[in-house]
Amino acid sequence: MKNKKLFILVPDGVGLRNFAYGGFCAHAKAQGFDVTFWNDTAFDLTTLGFHEIKISGSRPHPMTYVLKNVRIQVDLNRNIRRSKDRVYDSYRFGFSYSDLKQTLRSWLTRASILWHDSDSGIRKVRAQIKRRERSTPYYRQCLETLKAEKPDLIFCTNQRTVSCMAPVLAAQDLGIPTATFIFSWDNLPKATMALEPDFYVVWSAHMKKELQYYYDYIADDQIFVTGTPQFEPHSDESLLVSRDAFFAEHQLDPAKKYICYSGDDVTTSPNDPQYLADTAQAIRQLNASGGQLGLLFRRCPVDFSDRYDRILADYKDVIVPVNPKWEKVGGAWNGMLPTKADLVLQMNTIAHTEMVINLGSSMVFDYASFGKPCAYINYDVAQSLQPGWSVKTIYNFIHFRSMPSKNAVVWLNSADEIADKVNDVLLGKTNPVTEARRWFERINVLPAAEASQRMVSAFDEMVRRKK
User: CB atoms < 10 A from the CB of 284, how many?
Assistant: First the structure.
């Protein structure tokens, strides 16, 4: 029997991490798929032995960006009216008036929001986006590629990227089944859905329920619950090196136990340097009482700012930075891409540290997979670097409401609490791992290691249905 041809449309580094660096392609091949990456990143996937077709000139229609923003704002308005919950306002980004072009775009967007702020209005916006995308040279280029290659399924690894609209529309117009992946646990409440494929792949029954709530035009049989490949590497022991080797490579003190501080981006946590300093001060306090502890700092992979430099210098006796292994590929704005080496680095960072501290990150699930606890920063600093910002806004986001118990993490409610609460975890007096695993099971179908296998089985069903 002839193998089915799977096109994986990859617009960003998250797609590379989930589908090129792990075991997904091996599972696809074993189940009768030939994989081609339809690659809209600067990374050369042929260096990993994959077949790829590069996308060049992926330029959406200029009005698509305006219309997508209109759709986001109207969908958030609809969510507020439906739920009577103002939390959706916190997902909005402000309008730019930095120059004449931005000012005109902002006023056009605001006027269009008022005009389309209804159920019928949002349907018109969705139709306009499709019509404009079908008018572009990029769409015609996609048609030609698909006519020549004749894939059996197009799978897009990111549901919110504007540049993926034309390829998906072109495939649908040729009768080729299309699917997309809801790639993160916090995506759906943000109203960032750009694509309308034939099928949707989600992490869990919880995410499926969210998808149907926010997009009631999606039918039940269009959604496949598979889990995410993001957590599959945690069960791959071949990625792990010994503690001695890891400590030697990163110049860690073998006499110490290390806590991981996982940094956030500047938008999520503008005061992150202060939180890192508070944590380092707590480690100093514990060491002064006889502890043998260090702090391994893994910054957010896309944060290349100098905002931590002073803290790293002031606490060099405590903090060891172990930077993510991302690379600048090409000159595009999205040219910072993860490497396969970073996947290995992240797994070993988890394996060889005692716990993780951060502000609201999904690293709680990565550590829970290793049976290790997470502590969440849960206090505001006296002088915020971003006036009006608060941790209360972060933890009120919809995705944190999936937490079955507040005991799934250790809550660090002030800088003064950090030392005692970290010590309680290290002594085994506090252990949130059981509840964290319950949370993980709610947001990601288990076993986590079988996500790719379930996903490929779903693809097989999608192709069968469309024949």
Answer: 17
| Topology agreement, domain 4-60+136-228+447-466 and domain 234-443 | yes
DSSP for residue 96? P
Classify burial at 106, counting beta carbons within 10 Å of its beta carbon; exposed 0-12, middle 13-18, buried 19 or more. Answer: middle
Please name the fold of domain 234-443.
Rossmann fold (3.40.50)
> What pLDDT is stored for residue 385 in this prediction?
87
Token pair listed for 418: 């950090």
Tokens 């599972």 appear where? 27
Q: Which pLDDT does position 125 carry in this prediction?
A: 97
Beta strands in 366-422 (DSSP E): 374-377, 410-412
Find how far residue 83's CA is from the centre of its chain.
25
Closest CA to 13 of 364, 269, 448, 328: 328
Q: What radius of gyration, in Å, describes the C-alpha atoms of the chain? A: 23
pLDDT at position 2, please?
A: 82
Q: Which two tokens stand for residue 403?
A: 């937490």
Which residue ranges make up each domain of the chain?
4-60+136-228+447-466, 62-132, 234-443
Cα 17 vs. chain centroid, distance in angstroms?
A: 10
The end-to-end CA distance of the chain, in Å, is 16
List the chain residues with pLDDT less than 70: 1, 330-335
The whole-angstrom separation of Cα 377 and Cα 150 is 50
CA distance 108 to 70: 9
Instruction: Please state, in angstroms and as integers, the Cα–Cα distance from residue 286 to each residue in 278, 282, 292, 318, 397, following that order.
Output: 13, 6, 8, 11, 33
Give the CA distances from residue 6 to residues 28, 140, 158, 194, 466, in Å, rounded to whole numbers and listed in that order.
Answer: 9, 20, 16, 21, 14
pLDDT at 57 (0 to 100): 83
Write out the two tokens for 70: 């209109």
pTM of the model: 0.95
The CATH number of the domain covering residues in 4-60+136-228+447-466? 3.40.50.2000
CA–CA separation, 157 and 166 (whole Å)? 15
Q: How far apart are CA 16 and CA 183, in angstroms?
A: 12
Packed helices 433-443 and 205-214: angle between N→C axes, nearest 10 degrees:
50
Which residue, 188, 202, 203, is CA-closest to 444? 203
- Annotate 286-335 with DSSP letters as a single string: HHHTT--EEEEEE--TT---STTHHHHHHTTTTEEE----EEE-SSSTT-
> What pLDDT was estimated at residue 333?
46
pLDDT digits (tens, 9 = 90+) for 105-136: 899 999 999 999 999 999 999 999 999 999 99
Q: Are 36 and 5 in contact (CB under 8 A)?
A: yes
* Residue 253, SS3 per DSSP: coil
Structure tokens at 413: 């409610």
